[in-house]
Design goal:
This protein is α/β, with parallel strands linked by helices. It has a domain at about 50-170 and about 265-300: Bacterial extracellular solute-binding protein, family 7 (D-Maltodextrin-Binding Protein, domain 2). Helices cover about 50% and strands about 15% of the residues. It has helices at about 5-45, 70-80, 100-110, 140-150, 150-160, 200-210, 220-225, 240-245, 270-275, 280-315, 325-345, 345-370, 370-380; strands at about 50-60, 85-90, 115, 165-170, 180, 195, 210-215, 230-235, 250-255, 265-270, 320. A six-stranded mixed β-sheet has the order 7-6-8-5-9-11. β6 (about 195), α6 and β7 (about 210-215) form a beta-alpha-beta unit. It is globular and about 65 Å long.
């Protein structure tokens, strides 16, 4: 009698049953998730709570590390905290408006939110530069203190009010690098004729030192430096600079970032749109901005270290410190520019005096706290 082997058909049958059952579970779970989403939407609609959809435009490439991730985080936080009542769609530079069109777009109401840097708008509002970075001025920790507890944010809000804008701190890079150069900087004479991408007050200092400052969006910097349109560029620091690949086209990487000691990024909100939000959503927007502001500084503090190590050890980048006499020369020029601009611009002067007052208090304290502590860490290392 021939023995029939039942095992293969049984096994195949069981496998088929498992596949069908698993498929049914997946479909069921998908249907359940869709049903939950629909129920949430229906519940929100039936609750009578109004929902809002905003556009956010940035000066950065979409999802660019650090700078570009901050507006994305802000939008996600607002969505989560509002339970979907306020949804914000993020557009990178050039997707909806040009990189340098953010201020105008949010001011006009074409977009409700923008993310960028205040010094980009110095042509419209010269005093806006205080709210990104002042050469040789406050670092990131000090800037946050001035804005949130030293009266700086109120001054910023007054400055932007005529443009129907409400500004908020939206990130900080910490102390930046002086930049990438294809020319050595050994003396102040080496600054003469230097064509460099450097915005804000730092650019004015370079101009007066004999160089030529230009403002170019981040997405165009690599080509401009590679083709010789510019001789040098500052961007941010190792984390972003590595991502942009500047080490492939520039010879020298200089520090410290005298021009941007604690750069603050901004979230600007169309004030009319903001005032249409109920109080709880307004609070959520402000809270999400504070979260994005601190998170960016935390990220740069963690990422710059590893990126610098890679640039130097794996890519052979030549890291150099700007000579002290060059820095001293730039600082002298900066003081002259600040005083002269304040003398002819009452708005600039008012903010400059407030900035100086806070600076006069925080620097002496940090001299015996932060600065003194840094020195204690070096004791015994020599």
């Amino acid at each position: 009698m021939k023995t029939i082997n039942w095992y293969p058909p049984v096994i195949l049958g069981l496998l088929a049953l498992l596949v069908v059952t698993f498929g049914a579970l997946v479909v069921s779970r998908s249907d359940q998730e869709q049903t939950v989403t629909e129920l949430k939407g229906a519940a929100l609609k039936n609750s009578g709570q109004q929902t809002f959809e905003w556009k956010l435009v940035t000066t950065w490439p979409k999802n660019f590390p650090g700078l570009g991730s901050a507006p994305e985080r802000f939008a996600r936080k607002v969505d989560a905290m509002s339970n979907g009542r306020l949804k914000i769609k993020v557009f990178g530079a050039g997707e909806l408006v040009p990189a340098m069109g953010v201020f105008g777009a949010v001011s006009s109401g074409a977009a409700q939110v923008g993310h960028g840097a205040a010094y980009y708008w110095k042509g419209k509002v010269p005093a806006a530069q205080f709210f990104t970075a002042v050469p040789f001025g406050l670092n990131a920790q000090e800037m946050n203190g001035w804005l949130h507890y030293g009266g700086g944010l109120k001054l910023w809000e007054e400055l932007y009010a005529p443009f129907d804008l409400l500004p908020m701190a939206g990130g900080s890079t910490g102390v930046q690098m002086a930049g990438w150069f294809n020319k050595e900087i050994n003396t102040v004479d080496d600054l003469k004729g230097l064509k460099m991408r450097i915005p804000g007050l730092g650019g004015e200092v370079l101009n007066r030192a004999g160089g030529t400052a230009v403002t170019i969006p981040g997405g165009e910097l690599y080509t401009a430096l590679q083709t010789g349109v510019i001789d040098a560029t500052e961007w941010v620091g190792p984390y972003n600079d590595l991502a942009f690949g500047f080490h492939q086209i520039a010879k020298y990487y200089y520090y410290p970032g005298w021009h941007e000691p604690g750069s603050i990024l901004e979230i600007i909100v169309n004030k009319t749109a903001f005032e249409k939000l109920p109080a709880d959503l307004q609070a959520i927007v402000r809270t999400a901005a504070r979260d994005a502001n601190q998170d960016m500084l935390d990220e740069y503090t963690a990422r710059n270290n590893r990126a610098l190590k890679e640039l130097v050890e794996e890519h052979g980048v030549e890291l150099r410190k700007l000579p002290d006499d060059v820095i001293a020369h730039l600082k002298k020029i900066n003081t002259q520019i600040m005083q002269q601009t304040a003398a002819r611009d009452p708005q600039f002067n008012r903010i400059y005096r407030a900035f100086q007052e806070f600076e006069s208090q925080v620097i002496p304290y940090h001299r015996i706290s932060e600065e003194a502590y840094y020195k204690t860490r070096e004791l015994g290392d020599r």
